[in-house]
Amino acid sequence: MSINITNYQQNETVSCPLVLVKGTCTTSGLIRVIHHGLDQNKFPAQYFSVDNGCFRALVHLEGGENTVYFQLVDGEIRTDETYRATASVVVHRESNTFAPLKIHYVPVVQNKPIHVCMIVAKDSPLVFDTPGYKKAKEGNGFDLAVRKLRLGCRLMQTYTLEEMRANGFGNRTFAFAEEWTCSSLSKQDFDKNGEGRAHMDIKVHVITSRKTLAELRDPNMAQQNPKGSNTGGLFSHALDELKHYGGPFEEGHRTAQAAVMYLDATWDTQLQLILAHAALGGGDDRISLAIFGSQGLHLWPSFVEDIIPAFQDDTRLSITEVANDCNQCGTSWETFTLSMGAFMHEIGHSLGSPHQESGVMLRDYIFLQRSFCTRETYCERTKAGESLIGRDGKWPNECHWHRLDLIRYLHHGSLGLPTDAYDPSFQKRTKTLGNGAKPVDQIYTGVQGQPLGFHVSQGCIVKSTSGIYLVEMDVDGLARAWIEYLPKTVGGPGQQYDLLLNYEELQRRIPERFRNKKMHVRVLSGCGDFNIDDFEKYCHEDSTVRLGGGVVGYKSTLLGRLLEHEVVAQVDMNLVIGARVYHGRALDGIRFFVGAGAPPALPPRNYGEKQGFLGKVTQKLKDVKLESQSPQVPVHSDSVLFGKETKDYTDFMLNPGERFSRFHFRNGGWVDAVVLETTSGRRSANLGGGGGHVTTLEAPPGLSIQGWYGFMDRWVYGIGIVYG
Questions:
Q1: 621-652, pLDDT tens digit by residue?
Q2: Are strands 716-723 and 552-555 parallel, antiparallel or unpaired?
Q3: Which residue among 338, 418, 518, 719 is buried most deeply as judged by most CB within 10 Å?
Q4: Largest Cα–Cα distance of the chain, in whole Å?
Q5: What InterPro entries does this protein map onto (predicted)?
Q6: Domain ranges (residues) in the chain
C-alpha cells in the first residue's frame, strides 16, 4: 500500500491557508489528514474518501512551515439520511501507511485585497432564506451568514490557487482583506466556546444601507425581472453605499476592490422572482465591484468538515421555500455549486475577465464540485445518479478558469508573488496595483502609456511603453485564439513593446469555422487595452492623409474625442527646433518652431531632479532631466500651429542635435495635457491639467512624424499624429 501526492512537491510555498491536495492510493478506504504534525489541539484530523484510487483533500495551514501527514485508514463516511449537509466518520482499522508533506504558508500582504462586504437594509431582520430542514438544524441568523460567506470566499481562493499552479503560474491566488478575529474554521473550535479561536480570517465589512427592506426588494430592481424598470439598480446602489461607508472606499483613497453580498435577497413565491439580488461585476474608476444575493447561502458550509458533504448533499429542494435559480438548483449541492460559482464569476468580471468559450466565465461552474470531490451524487439537472472520478484522476467535465482569465490574473495586482519583482519582463497591470495617484509630473517616469496602433499595409503596428502581454482574437463576442507573451520566469518570451499584427496571420490562428467573419482584436498591456473592432475593415480602410508637397502619411490612433470638423497641420518634426505649448487646465494648442539650420542660442536652463525613464525597445535605461524654466523663442522663426493660441503658454526649445522623440498626453474625453520628450531623454513639465490617463504618441520604427490631426472646440478635444 502506498500514498502518492500528485500536485505538490515537498517544501513548496503557498499564499492561501486552505489548499487542495490531490493524490492516488493503491487501495480503497479513507485518507486521514493530520494537520500540523501530530498536534491535534491546533486543528482536528479531516477525512476524505478514496474513489477509483484517487483522493482530493482540503488541508488547512498555519503561517510558516507546516508538516501534514496523509494516513490511509479503513473506514467510511456516513451521512444522516434526514440531514445530508454534514457527515460522521467511522474508522474500522488504521494502517501504518503515511505520506508526509512539508508545505509553507506565507500570506502576501502587499497584494491589493478584495474587500468582502455584506449589505443589509436599515430595517433588515438579519436573516437569510433557507429551507425548513436546514433552518431546524442550524438556523439562518446573521452570524451564521458571515461564517458561510467567509468559508465560501476561502474556497474561491483555494480553487484559484490550484488553477494558477496547474497552469504553471505559481502558487498564487487573489487576496482578500483579512483581520485578526475569533472565528471557527473547524467544528472543534466552535464546539469549545461557540466563538472559535483567534486567528487571521477574511474580514467581512457589514454595511447598513440607507434604503429600507422594501426599497431593496423593489421588483423593478430585481435583475431577473423582464419587466423591471431598473434591473441594474443594485449595482449602482452598492457603489454608492461603499463610498458612503468610507474606509477603503472613501474619496481620495487608492482604488479598491469589493465582493458584495446582499443579505436580504429573497425568493418571492408569488412573483416567482429573486428580490434584492443581481449577479453583476465591473466597477468605475475608483472601485472594482462584484455583487450577488444570498438566496443560495443556506447551502454554503460554515465549517471545513462540512465542505465535502455540502458538495454531495442531494436533498431535493422546493420552490415553495427557496429559489431554483436558472432551473439548475434542484438539489442542495447544485444550489451550493451554482451560487458560489456564479458569485466567483462576477468576481472574475471585477478582476477584468470577459465571458469566455468555457470555464468559470461561461457557466461551467455547475461542475465546480468536481474540482474538490472524487464522488458525485444524484443531479436533478441531468437526472444522473452517483458517479466517480476516473482512475486517471480526471472528470469528463470539470470547471476551470479559462487560460485567458489566468493570464489576466497573472498580471493583476491582487495575485502577485514576491519573486515577480526579480523578473524585469514581468510588469503588473498598473490600474490593479492601487498604489495611489502619482503627481502628474512623476506619472511619466518609468513604464507608462496605453498601447497605440499604427496602420500599415494589411495590418497594424501596436506599440506600448508598458509592455504587451496578450493579443486576443474575438469572433462572435468570444476569444477564439490568442498570442501569449508571458514573463520569462513562467516560460514565456517576456512582454513586447511593439508588435506587427498581420490580418492573414491572425486569420490562420483562429479555428476554421470562425474565419472570414468579423474579427475583433484586443491587445492587453500593463497600462490598458488597444481594441480594433473589425480588423479586416481596419486593414482595408484608407487612413492616409495627403499633405503638401506630395507627402502622404498615415493617421495614428486618435486620442480624446472625435468632433465634426477635422484639423490637419503639416510639420516635419525633423526640422523642428522647439515648441510653444498653450495650456491651462487642458491643452489648448501647440506651436512648432521650424528652422533651416542650427537653432538660435538659448539662455541657461535649470533642471530638476533626475529620474529614470524607459526609452525605446532597443535603448537601455537613461537618465532624464525635467525642464523647469523655458527660454525665449526668436520672434521671426517660422512656425506651425495646431490648436488655439492663448495668453498662457510654456516654451520648450531643443538643444543642438536634439529632436522630439515622443509626446506623452493625458487624455480622456478630451486632451488634458502633454509632456514633450527629446532624443536625449529631456522632458518638459506636465503642461496642462491632471485628468485622464497617459498615452504616448511616437512614430513607428523607421518612420517620422509629418504632421498632426485632430479636433478643436474650446480646447483640444482630439489629437493624433500623421506619420510617414
A1: 223 233 333 334 444 348 999 999 999 999 99
A2: antiparallel
A3: 719
A4: 101
A5: Jacalin-like_lectin_dom_sf, Metalloproteinase_M10B, Unchr_Zn-peptidase-like
A6: 3-105, 437-540, 549-723
163, 241, 346, 627: the catalytic one is 346
Residue 181 CB: number of other CB atoms within 10 A? 16
Question: How many contiguous H segments (helices) and E segments (strands) does the chain have?
Answer: 10, 41
Task: Give the whole-angstrom CA distance, residue 513 versus residue 478.
Answer: 14
Element (H, E) at 4: strand 3-5
Mean pLDDT of 267-282: 94
DSSP 258-303: EEEEETT-EEETTTTEEES---EEEE-SSEEEEEEESTTGGGS-SS
Span 269-281, mean pLDDT?
Answer: 95
Question: Quick one: 179 exposed, middle or buried, by C-beta within 10 A (0-12, 13-18, 19+)?
Answer: exposed
Edge-to-edge strand list for the sheet holding 660-667: 687-688, 671-678, 660-667, 693-697
Strand pairing of 114-120 and 256-262? Answer: parallel
Residue 451 cell numbers, joined: 498601447
Query: Spelled out in words, what is the top-level CATH class assigned to the domain 3-105?
Result: mainly beta
Q: What does the pLDDT average to over 258-263?
A: 98
Between strands 12-14 and 83-105, the pairing is parallel
Interval 584-590 mean pLDDT: 94
| CATH tag, 549-723 | 2.100.10.30
Q: Is 346 designated active site? A: yes
Instruction: Please give the distance of CA 677 from its chain centroid, rounded to a whole number.
Output: 32
- Quote the pLDDT of residue 190: 65
- For residue 611, give the 3-state DSSP assignment: strand
Which residues, 6+ apart, have CB-to-CB distance to 316 below 8 Å? 330, 331, 380
Report the chain's terminal Cα–Cα distance, integer Å: 73
Distance of CA 33 to the CA centre of its chain: 34
Q: What's the rounded Cα separation, in Å, for the pair 656 and 255?
A: 44
Q: What is the pLDDT of residues 390-428, one digit of tens each?
A: 999 999 999 999 999 999 999 998 999 999 989 988 888
Grid coordinates representing 160 are: 484559484
Which residues make Cβ contacts (< 8 Å) with residue 129, sequence separation at least 6?
140, 265, 266, 267, 294, 295, 297, 298, 321, 322, 323
